[in-house]
Design a protein that fits this description.
The chain is an alpha/beta fold. The chain is built from six helices and nine strands; from the N terminus they run ααβαβαββαβββαββ. The structure holds S-adenosylmethionine.
Length: 215
């Protein structure tokens, strides 16, 4: 594991319990996020490719109940072993495993869809093509990808310090154009993109994209 990935993994190990505490129930109060995830769920089910989806960069697994309630069978992956420990504890009944988005332990075309909710914004520009190719590899033709991300100028920032737990890592507020470029270069076509201004203490606008893997 390279030093930047190790820093990111170690930081999220430290942040796992804080995320569990701060993010519990938050999706229930976020109708835009629910609508984007709901669109992904409806499109995935309508594609008729089964119900198996992965949440890559699942963190504490907080999206699992929502995806299940919308009819999908989800499995979560995360770089951070501590996030996976918390996800297994807080979301029993779902499967969670440690894995990197650039090397997923799944066969080709295993999934009807993949969720990457605020988990692709840590990738350095040089790492993005491999990560998006890996996401395309595991999704069936006609299956869907949904991603949420901090939207911005694409510049490298240091994140994590605001938690006050002594951790930091690289993060990029991606431009929607860059997100779309990566998705389409990997073999997906955009079916929906959108965004909203920052709310409360968020610090950045939010971007959302749903794409379909070319048949
Ligand atoms: C901001 S958190 C979001 C967690 C979850 N998706 C949510 O919305 O609550 C980002 C998560 O992505 C994970 N992550 C970052 N880079 C990753 C990578 N290369 N592969 C897998 N997971 C990654 C982190 O460990 C962290 O749990």
């Amino acid at each position: 594991m390279d030093a930047k990935t190790e820093e990111l993994r170690a930081a999220h190990d430290v942040l796992a319990e804080l995320y569990a505490e701060r993010l519990a129930g938050v999706l229930d109060r976020m109708p835009i996020e629910q609508a984007v995830l709901g669109l992904f769920c409806d499109l995935t089910l309508a594609a008729g490719l089964g119900t198996t989806v992965a949440d890559v960069g699942c963190g504490t697994g907080r999206l699992a109940p929502y995806l299940a309630a919308r009819g999908l069978s989800m499995q979560g992956f995360d770089l951070s072993p501590e996030m996976i420990r918390v996800a297994r504890r807080d979301q029993p009944g779902f499967r969670f495993d440690v894995a990197d988005v650039r090397d997923l332990p799944l066969p080709d075309a295993a999934l009807a869809g993949v969720v990457c909710w605020y988990s692709l914004m840590f990738l350095a520009p040089s790492d993005r093509p491999a990560a998006f190719r890996e996401l395309a590899r595991v999704v069936q033709p006609g299956g869907y990808l949904v991603t949420a991300f901090k939207a911005g100028d694409g510049q490298l920032r240091r994140g994590g310090h605001s938690a006050g737990l002594g951790v930091e890592f690289d993060v990029y507020w991606l431009s929607p154009a860059e997100m779309e470029r990566q998705v389409t270069s990997a073999g997906f076509a955009t079916v929906f993109w959108g965004g909203r201004p920052a709310e409360g203490g968020e610090g950045s606008p939010q971007g959302y994209l749903v794409a379909v893997k070319a048949s």
